[in-house]
Design brief:
Elements lengths: L2 H9 L20 H13 L1 H13 L20 H10 L5
Helix pairs in contact: 2-3, 2-4, 3-4
Length: about 90
């Protein structure tokens, strides 16, 4: 399982973003989407993130493609692009 998760659980933290060594490249945090989401959870909290992700899902943004562990958020080139997609959804042309 994800070592940062286990570490945070041992420390009784709500998430890995509370660690003084965040972000590390250990386990899942080596993945751009996971690291970006963790930063946003720290900044905005779980309730706001859940609202954004639910809205985006209703709008057709896919978190995980069927049978895969990647989705639309993983297409982003950097954390800022992920952040924009989460907060604003897709901008229609």
């Amino acid at each position: 399982w994800c070592r940062p998760y286990q570490c945070g659980k041992k420390q009784d933290w709500a998430g890995c973003w509370l660690c003084p060594d965040f972000p590390c490249d250990d386990g899942m945090l080596a993945k751009l989407r996971v690291r970006a989401f963790a930063r946003m959870l720290d900044e905005f909290g779980e309730e706001q993130m859940n609202e954004w992700l639910a809205r985006n899902e209703r709008a057709g943004i896919i978190y995980h493609y069927p049978g895969k562990l990647v989705g639309d958020y993983d297409k982003a080139a950097d954390e800022e692009e992920i952040r924009r997609l989460v907060m604003q959804g897709r901008k229609e042309a």
